[in-house]
Amino acid sequence: MQPVRFGLVGYGFGGRYFHAPLLGAAPECEFLGVVTTSPERQALVAAEHPAVRTFASLAELKAAGAEAVSISTPADTHTPLSEQALELGLAVVCDKPFALDAPSARRTVEMAERLGLPLAPYQNRRWDADFLTVRALADDGSLGDVTRFESRFERLAPEDGPGAAGGGTLLDFGAHLVDQALVLLGPVTSVHAEWRLRENGLDDDVFVALTHAAGARSHLWGSWSQGAPGPRFRVTGTTGSYVNATLMDVQEDLLLGGHTPATLGEEWGVEPPERWGRVHRGDAGEPAPTRRGRWDTFYPAFARAVRGLGPVPVEPRDAVATAIVLDAARRSATSGEAVRL
Questions:
Q1: Confidence of residue 29 (pLDDT cuts 50, 70, 90)
Q2: Which of 4, 111, 277, 324 could make a disulfide contact with 244, Cβ separation 3.0–4.6 Å?
Q3: Helix, strand, or coil here: 212?
Q4: Confidence band (pLDDT; 50, 70, 90) for 291?
């Protein structure tokens, strides 16, 4: 397959660590350039990706031959930049939150459908090692029928977040938490949410309770201010429960440490045994080997979609479904009442 000429918009934390290394490591992608007007970030691109150019605008990137673009910029720019890229004829990957609200998400998705261009939300957390393990345990019946899904993104870094760039904790962490819940348990009929507003007006210490149409419930937590984070997952079924206390997927640590799928090969995304979760049945439990994390599959799959060789890795209308739940969570946290969907 001819590699897809790919650009990246933004070289902040997300673009630098969660997009550029994976684009550069994917043989299906030719990492063409980064759109940034910051001299400091232009210098970082030159130092870390010497073969990659920088551009002042999406139009310049397109003129240089780009076919697709990944957008990793502040949350309030995602919709206008995605739509500008689509207008230029570029296939688009947009980081989370895909949009600030469901109407904006729906408009962008309908625009891509009208233009016949591939579009995908960057829900890389679907390929977290521990979430792949949760899905496998649910699929093979190890837990019986799943009745409750507990999931947390909690950390103690109050100075770092919730940042305005992420739009607050509900949009930032909640976009991944809700997406995983929908993937595992399906559509939602009711949403209850709580949050704490910080001095800067952004929400933190978020709790969201979802009732799924099939009867299961999801309890989701997100916080930048938690000194005692709870387990990443506790998934309860009719015959067993899975608990994983690991705070974050190993792939995040690897990228922050300068590793990529190209440098590690088959060792990419492998969790050591001491980070495995356990399946409990009212006892001490037994280890459940963690599946290999596969963030490295997202961009190759999207590139194949650009070439007409397969579907996008995440359906764009999934971003609309997530945004609907997040909108309801915002209303619930503000009003103190559950919202029915």
A1: very high
A2: 277
A3: strand
A4: very high
Domains and CATH numbers, the chain: 4-124+298-313 (3.40.50.720), 125-294+325-340 (3.30.360.10)
d(CA 255, CA 266): 15
Could you give the CA distance from residue 192 to residue 258 in angstroms, rounded to a whole number? 39
Distances (CA, A) of 184 to 206, 233, 241: 21, 13, 15
| Alpha-carbon span 26 to 297, nearest angstrom | 9
Return the structure tokens found at 226.
């938690």
Q: Which H/E stretch holds residue 204? A: strand 203-212
Query: pLDDT tens-digit profile of 81-95?
Result: 999 999 999 999 999
Residue 93: name the closest of 188, 20, 181, 150 by CA: 20
Q: What is the DSSP letter of 316?
A: H
Say if CB 180 and CB 152 are below 8 A apart: no
Please, what's the b/e burial string for 13-49 (b: 16 or more CB within 10 A of its CB; e: otherwise)? ebbbbbbbbbbbbbebbbbbbbbbeeeebbebbeeeb
